[in-house]
Amino acid sequence: MTVKIFGEGKAVARKRRHARIRKHVYGTPERPRLVASRSNRHMVAQVIDDTKGIVLASASTLTHDFDGFKGTKTEAAKKVGELVAERARKAGVAAVVFDRGGNAYHGCVAAVADGAREGGLQL
After folding, report:
1. What is the rounded average pLDDT of the residues 107-121?
2. C-alpha to C-alpha distance for 100 and 2, rounded to whole angstroms
3. HEC profile for 30-42?
4. Do the Cβ atoms of 56 and 32 come closer than 8 Å?
5. Which end of the chain is less crowded, N or C, counting CB atoms within 10 A of the terminal residue's CB?
6. Residue 105 CA, distance from chain mean position
7. Closest CA to 16 of 8, 4, 6
8. Is the separation of the CB atoms in 28 and 35 below 8 Å?
9. CA angle at residue 28 from 55 to 19, to 5 degrees?
10. What is the phi-psi region of residue 28: left when phi exceeds 0, alpha when psi lies from -120 to 50, beta otherwise?
11. What is the pTM of this model?
12. Angle CA 83–86–20, to nearest 5
């Protein structure tokens, strides 16, 4: 077993930041929460109504919409944002609260938000 002497590790720090953010970011039926989750390879975006605990719309780079996609991870993240915006608007959602999930608002996370804005969602 290894012991970290300096710091707590990236994953634990991200979870602490996300818990701190979630104290203030809450999805309602009028303005649900748009969650951007990332891994090293994929992006997932979900529109969640926290009062009912249901997912209203979602998009991911793991779906068949991305079969044969050629481009960078940031371009894929922007397309995920556009897809989730399109699906959310079909579900009757016009405005959302953005939850970056403890990640920095930079790169792929920012691309999801930009894609959602271009898709017609108000953040």
Report:
1. 96
2. 30
3. CCCEEEEEECCCC
4. yes
5. N
6. 11
7. 8
8. no
9. 80
10. beta
11. 0.87
12. 70
HEC readout, the chain: CCCCCCCCCHHHHHHHHHHHHHCCCCCCCCCCEEEEEECCCCEEEEEEECCCCEEEEEEECCCHHHCCCCCCHHHHHHHHHHHHHHHHHHCCCCECEEECCCCCCCCHHHHHHHHHHHCCCEC
φ and ψ of 13, to 5 deg: -65, -40
Identity of the amino acid at 123? L
d(CA 106, CA 79): 16
Tokens 């109504």, residue located: 49
Give mean pLDDT, residues 79-95. 96
**Separation between Cα atoms, residue 116 and residue 100, nearest integer Å:** 13
Q: Which two tokens stand for residue 107?
A: 């790169």
